[in-house]
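Issue 218. Parser rejects a valid record. Input:
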Amino acid sequence: MTVIVCAIFSEAKALVELYELKLTAKKPFLIYENDNITLIISKIGKINAAIATTYAALLKEPDKIINIGICAASSNSKKIGSLYSIKSIVDVSSGKKVILSNDGERLYCFDKPVKEQKGLKEDMLIDMESYGFYMAASKFVKKESIKIYKIISDYLEVSHIDSEFVYTLVKNNLTQILQ
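Output the parser choked on:
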């Protein structure tokens, strides 16, 4: 059984369609399932991601746990719509770092939306769920069975982001994610 965690439905919609997942629960989280996949919508933030991941893992005893979603980039050197596999996470508020694999990009997890580039390093990928997701997932599966895929949606400007845009970003990257 694979558990997939997405923060918002627009990140999950293309996966729901592809795998023909059916809505099986609305509370405490939206859960979509088929025989092999359970997808849970956590809502935004580390705590929500940790709680949803834990909830799904306790329900399903997964062999893999995957986080798929959007992220920001601190500069335009990375193209909007680009998909990245995450190799490590830095929790900015605590300074703690976790390593998932040797391949991929580093992701910086913030507690609140980052609205300006001042004080940020060049080429940072930024989200708000990854650290909470990882800390929960690591209690249930081996590190090698945890994957995070992030798609760049913006350069710290969220004004153009709507649900259709996010859905399109994920849908355009499904083939790469599935590989």
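Fixed in the parser; the record now loads. The helical segments are 9-18, 46-60, 130-137, 163-178.
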